Amino acid sequence: MTRKARPVIGARLSGLVAGVDTLAQPATTSLSTTLLDPGEFQPRYYFNPDALDDLTRSVREQGVLQPLLVRPTASGRYEIVAGERRWRAARQAGLTEVPVLIRTLSDSEARLAAAVENLQREDLNVMEEVRAKLQVASVTLGVPEDSVVARMFALDRHAETEPELIARLDAAFGALGRESWRSFIRNRAALLNLSEDLQEAVRTGLDYRKALVIGRADRDDLRDAMLEAASGGATVAALREMLRGPAQPTQDVFVTVAQQLRDRRALGRLDARQRARAEKLLAQLSALLSGQTSDTD
């Protein structure tokens, strides 16, 4: 199947990263694959071997259709900002050079470029998507990734205090599409609080909604049982039932009242009116149980 060249990177970053609109220019340079290093801000942790093999076969037949975005480093080498999968596939295919766009980018620009470029990919898993959007928000607000979700919640609660930041978030997430930043922090951002093994399970195919339910388990045995059930195809609703556990039987009302009547302190707290009402109700109950009609009716 013939692959179509994707729009060049700069076209998708226009308006998001200051100073990189020139990335819309076509690649005019090739670099040796041995001069390139994986990027510091790569959102991907996992490269599916089967998908990479498919890309390798395509690259072997047609070459690398979309150039990599790279930036020079102090060592004389180049850091891959966007396109690490293409670089890996090119090396597997035996290519010695790949087309590149060389740009001098700040860390913030490189972080945002890597995030936005990866978010265009259909095979990005949910954990990688969350991390990429976290990078976008981090650069947009100018705060570290580990505190950006809390910052966004604060902005959501007090939107009137910093309208300019709200507008920047709206623009950034609007350009990315799919969901607003408010939807992001209320839903998928919660995945960042999951244990590492649950995050890894999401990366390798577990539905993130199921992972969020499993993450609420307060016992290891329950958590393991829910994870096994999810692997076997249990629905989100079924996992919620497991989390709630078996329904607790309600205590017999007669037992409850009998216990309360033996509590002298509770009875002593009744005022005269409450005590008179209680005595009337007890007289009615006594008559009912004995099959007689109470004179207090």
From TrEMBL:
Does the keyword field hold Hydrolase?
no
- State the Pfam families in the record: ParB_N
| GO CC entries | chromosome
The UniProt record lists the ParB-like N-terminal domain at 29-119
CDD domains membership? SPO0J_N
GO MF annotation, one:
DNA binding
Q: Which domain of life is it from?
A: Bacteria
Provide this UniProt record's keywords sorted from A to Z: DNA-binding
Per the record, the GO terms for biological process are: chromosome segregation
Family, similarity comment: Belongs to the ParB family.
User: Can you say what this protein is called?
Assistant: Chromosome partitioning protein ParB
